[in-house]
Amino acid sequence: MLEGIKGVSSFAGEVDLAIWVVVGLSILIFLLVVGVMFYFLYKYSNKRHSRDQIKNIEHNLPLEITWTVAPMILLAVMFYYGYTSLKAMRTIPAQNMEVKVTGQMWFWTHEYPNGKKTKDLYVPIGENIKLAITAKKNDVLHSYYVPALRLKQDAVPGKIYNAWFKATQTGAFDILCAEYCGTRHSYMLAKVYVLEKDKFDEWYNSDKKTPFDKKEKIPLHPGLTLLNDNGCTGCHSLDGSALVGPSYKDIFGRKVKVAVDGSLKEILTDENYLKRAILNPDAEIVDGYSGGMMSSYKDIISDEDIDKIIDYFKGGKIEVKVDKKAKAMAILDNNGCTGCHSLDGSVLVGPSYKGMFGRTVKVKIGDSLKEVVSNEDYLKRAILEPDTEVVDGFSGGMMSSYKGILSDEDIDSLIEYFKGL
Ligand SMILES: [Cu+2]
Question: Is the pTM of this model over 0.85?
Fold first, then answer.
């Protein structure tokens, strides 16, 4: 939590020195004034000092010169340290990497010279970074504040203010908004990640979103891989919804009604039953479904592989669900969506994601109001072209398009996630 309290930019030392000089002198003067005050209180108390001793002194030249010149010198000292540290902060070295910083309700976007965009800032250690700071058009004022870098600059729509820094230590340091900008102002948090040069370069020249991105796929349960590879998941869902066949969700260990030779029977779905269902699907047909749909996998899937599939049926499913959700949540958080959209039904800047899928929604298209069903297509349009259909009761121009920022795959996993909210 106290990371960066020492200051991790090249000019942090000068800024800190300026502060300590001012604080130090202030304490000194405070002690001097209060000290003299107590001394006089004591010395000239009524008890110790008779009234006829009081004189009317009109002038004391040496004293007057002292109390004029001494504060002048003190102020000059403060000015010197204030000015030199400000100059260090304001003199942007000609050789630098320029990052565009945009503040908006309620997150920051950093854009690098090669077009990469990130929510957090990633920089190499020991290089000059120039920040071109602004706020989004039609947004409010923000202030880009990185205490560890001793850097703070207003972000104003339509204006670009430059700042710079050179980080002297690797690590993660907080970015805050220091200008009250509405209800979620305090959530306008991000991080500066100062990286070793190689690590930064490797990320900068890759297509990874962040240097900490794990591009490797999460290993799937071997049983699930078999289900995917054999096309089983085309007819069987993992999430409880019935497709052509029953879902695999909670398939193991339940009681199921099956038709055997025309008569209905209740059966426990144990290993043996599941194996029969794969090798001889038409012998026991699950009630509510038709026989003849699924063909036998005898000689297609080995016994060993069937065991893997059944092992997956016994417990593998929870893992998949959680990962999907975590992935969608990460996309929402990394793109600042949750700053404007809640998950719990409360209205922030935009509508809540709760119950969004499948409802009928009134949208403004140009000047006319229209009712549309919020299906996959609509949601995709809402993310890629937010201003074409503006949800009634909300203003257009608030949400920017995520075209080129979110991949089709990202959008699909978001919509999947929205369905369950
Ligand atoms: Cu702000």
Answer: no
